Amino acid sequence: MKKTMLALTAAGALASGSAWAQSAGDWVVGAGWLHLAPQDSSKPLTLTAPVRSVMTGSGASVNDSDTLGLSVVYFIDSHWAVEGVLGIPPKFKLDGTGTLGRVGELGEARQWSPTILGKYYFNEGRADFRPFVGLGATYVWYSDIELTPGLQGALGSQLRQRPFSTSTTAKLDSSFAPVLNAGVAYQIDKHWGVSLSVSYIPLKTKAKLTTTTLTGLPIATSEARLKLNPIVTYLSATYRF
C-alpha cells in the first residue's frame, strides 16, 4: 500500500512539473526595467574642414539611462530559444570632459537598438529556476539629436566666429554590434515568471558635426569618435502562453 501511494505521489509530482515545462512552441512575453550603463571613452573633437585641427584634451562621457523594455521569446525546444528585445528608445545625455568639461552638457540623443538573441536554457524544461546564456546582434541608430548652446559656442570659438553667428547640427553613425547575454529565469506558476539578464554590447559610433552660418551656408565640419560599450541590465515580469 505504501509503495502504491509513493508511486502515485511521484507520478502526481511529475505531472505537475511537466505542466509547467517549457517546450517547443512556447511563447514568453516580458516587460520591465531596462538599464543601460555605457562604459565609454572618446577621441578628441577634431575639425575636419576647412582645415584639420584637433581640440586637444577634449572628450565626452555618456550618462546612464533607464527605459521600459519589452521582449518576446520563442522556444525551439526545451533548451533552445530565440528572443527579440526592444523598448522605448532611451535618451542619453553627453557631457564634456577634459577641455570641454567647462561646457558641461554637450547634447542628447535617443538610441534605437532592437536586438535578436539565440539563447540556451540550462536545467530541464520543467525546472522552476533556469540559468541561460545568449548570443546575438543589434542594429543601433539615433534620433532627436540636439546640441546645447554651450557646445555651439565652443565650436564657434574654435572657428573664431562671433557668438551666436553660427549653428551646428550633428549626425551619429548607425551600426550593427554583437550582443553577449547571460541571466536567470524563474517560473512562478504555469504562466507567470520573472527574468533577469545582463548583456554586453561592444559598440562605437562617430558623431559628424556640420557648422553653418545663420543663413545656412556650411563653413566647417567636425567629428568625434565614441566608444559606448554599454552593459545592459533587464529585469522583467514574464507571461508564458
TrEMBL record:
State the UniProt keywords alphabetically. Answer: Signal
> Is Transcription one of the keywords?
no
Q: Where is the signal peptide?
A: 1-21
Q: Which InterPro entries match?
A: OMP/PagP_B-barrel, OMPW
Report the principal subcellular site: membrane
**Protein location:** Cell outer membrane
- Judging by the UniProt lineage, the source's domain of life is Bacteria
Q: Which Pfam families match?
A: OmpW
Q: What is this protein called?
A: OmpW family protein
Organism (species): Variovorax beijingensis
